[in-house]
Design goal:
Structural class: mainly alpha
Number of strands: 0
Largest sheet: none
Order of helices and strands: HHHHHHH
Shape: globular
Number of helices: 7
Oligomer: single chain
Helix content: over 70%
């Protein structure tokens, strides 16, 4: 009875959401139709975007190295100063602030790597004759990212001596997870589940946006298929890992009996 009651309560909101999504799609479709009627120069707009990317690509990666790399260095050094103040005893405000700064530093280093990969792909597309130069810049950016993450991990290990793992080890993530306590693993699980939900919703909205944009620019199905592939990998890996963990838990329970 409880399940049926929950379904009855949720169904009206679900239907309203579907109607709202359908109305939104209808409005967007109407405006897309207007662009065709009034002759939007989609080819010219696309060409303009390409020219901007082509102009930005030669120096974009270097700028990102300076911006993200500089920000990562500043955050790391700030965390190191907080750690120096900390006496190594129980967790204090200094240690918490240092860990937060290191988390932000790790985020900036990840963004630096993403921009390096993007600009290298753009360089291969727009400036293939200068591909070696852009390859060198990407390797430089990737090297600084790895070095920065190594320093971040080492400082984290200094604050938490129980932590294990090296960023140069291909099994780093597994060793790091094994060295975390139960509370930290629960935090990772909550963060991972939240990430899964946000990424799934983002992929669905990207699919909607790309389908509509394809009606204007006609760039084909490849970008749409790529988004669906990412969504499929996430959904499939999440489900398969849940099945694996459930089976492992059942086996342990059976052995305990």
């Amino acid at each position: 009875m409880k399940k049926n009651s929950e379904n009855r309560k949720a169904l009206p909101k679900f239907l309203i959401t579907l109607l709202a999504a359908g109305g939104f799609g209808g409005v967007i479709g109407f405006f897309i139709g207007l662009t065709n009627v009034f002759g939007l120069d989609a080819a010219g707009l696309s060409d303009g975007v390409s020219r901007v990317l082509q102009a930005v690509t030669p120096w974009g990666s270097l700028v990102c190295v300076l911006l993200f790399g500089g920000g990562t260095l500043w955050l790391y050094r700030s965390a190191a100063r907080k750690t120096a103040v900390w006496d190594g005893g129980d967790e204090s405000d200094a240690s918490q602030e240092a860990e937060n700064l290191l988390s932000w530093a790790m985020l900036l280093s990840a963004l630096q790597l993403l921009t390096a990969l993007f600009f290298f792909a753009a360089a291969v597309h727009y400036e293939l004759p200068r591909a070696m130069y852009h390859l060198a810049v990407m390797l430089l950016s990737s090297g600084t990212v790895i070095f920065a993450q190594q320093k971040i991990v080492d400082l984290t290990k200094r604050m938490n001596p129980e932590k294990r793992g090296s960023v140069y080890d291909k099994k780093f993530q597994k060793k790091w997870l094994e060295s975390c306590d139960e509370s930290e693993r629960q935090q990772m699980g909550q963060a991972a589940y939240h990430t899964f939900l946000v990424s799934s919703k983002f992929c669905l909205w990207m699919w909607v946006a790309l389908v509509m944009l394809n009606m204007v620019f006609g760039f084909g199905l490849m970008p749409i298929a790529a988004v669906l592939l990412v969504l499929g990998v996430m959904q499939g890996s999440y489900t398969l890992e849940s099945i694996r963990i459930a089976k492992k838990s059942q086996m342990r329970h059976a052995e305990g009996e």
